[in-house]
Amino acid sequence: MELFGYADTIWLPFVFAALMGVSILLYVVLDGYDLGVGILTPFASDAEKDMMVASIGPFWDANETWLVLAIGLLLVAFPAAHGLILSTLYLPVFFLLIGLILRGVSFEFRVKARAKYKEFWNWMFFAGSLLATLSQGFMLGLYVMGLQFTAGTFLFAALCALALTVGYAFIGATWLILKSEGDLQLRAIRWAKECIWGLVIGIGAISLATPLVSPRIWDKWFSFPSMLYLSPLPILSLLGLWLLWRSFRHLPGDGDRWAWVPFVTALGLFTLAFLGLAYSFYPFVVPEQLTIYEAASAPESLFIILIGACFVVPTILGYTALAYWVFRGKTKALRYD
């Protein structure tokens, strides 16, 4: 007697696709802002660099947990897609890992090494953050283009890499607006205003390219009534951009009451862009090549893994929420004693 029927081959892959999507989104918005802080460090003074690193000190390592979870879910739930995606993107994944390793090492060494080496490790922290971000943007561009290597897709991936770098710098600046005071906060406001174009260009470029990838996505975007499901996303995105610009007019005055608005709005814009991608490519886990149902593991395996996920995911959410609650408020000096 079979324990799992046809319905299980539908809802189980969908649940794991949703879990993987949430993990990727949380990684992008959480590790995105601390990568952005690293990208902005060359434009700050030595004292400001210390405060910038202190602002992400309690969070950056935990933020990367979501990347580990997303890759783990891809491996165990969609092994065929895992092999295809990571083998195709092997080189940018390699550079991503190098960037994350370099960033983690320099985070510690810039404080613990001798004073004369601090500037070197500051630059390594910036280099690791930049390399990781460029790699992520390049992978995103190739993924949107269906993992095809041509001159056109390479140029589009390079544009996505540049746009994501400026977008991460933008969300990093909004984080600093929330967590800093005085001159650093003023700098962060200026950085956010200067970097917002990267977020707009990145979302715009991907939005223009996505419906051109396949007739199926074109129909999802521009045929009735499917287009009604997508219509709230651009409307909310424009509203978010308006709210961002309005909040900048109130900063840093009004008792710092608006300091949270840019960061929360930036998170919303990233989330809306991600939802647009998810809507466009569903049910494909590899665009136009492999659906989540074709790539999924056996229902028996997925059910066992789901039991474990029911414990692991709430635990990660719990300690992440606890960390942000304990270290809420303005950043204080980072100490190791």
Domains, number = 1
Output the radius of gyration.
Answer: 21 Å
Cα(first) to Cα(last) distance is 62 Å
Unreliable spans are: none
Outline the structure in words.
With 337 residues, this protein is mostly helical. The chain has one domain. Helix content is 78%, strand content 1%. A two-stranded antiparallel ribbon has the order 1-2. The N and C termini lie far apart (62 Å).
Q: Brief description of this entry?
A:
The chain has 337 residues and is mostly helical. It has one domain.
Question: What attributes does this structure have?
Answer:
337 residues, two-stranded antiparallel sheet, 15 helices
Topology:
Layout: H1 8-40, H2 46-56, H3 60-63, H4 65-77, H5 79-88, H6 90-112, H7 118-144, H8 151-179, H9 182-209, H10 215-222, H11 226-230, H12 232-249, H13 260-281, E1 284-286, E2 290-291, H14 292-295, H15 299-326
Antiparallel strand pairs: 1-2
Helix pairs in contact: 1-4, 1-7, 1-8, 1-13, 1-15, 4-5, 4-15, 6-7, 7-8, 8-9, 8-13, 12-13
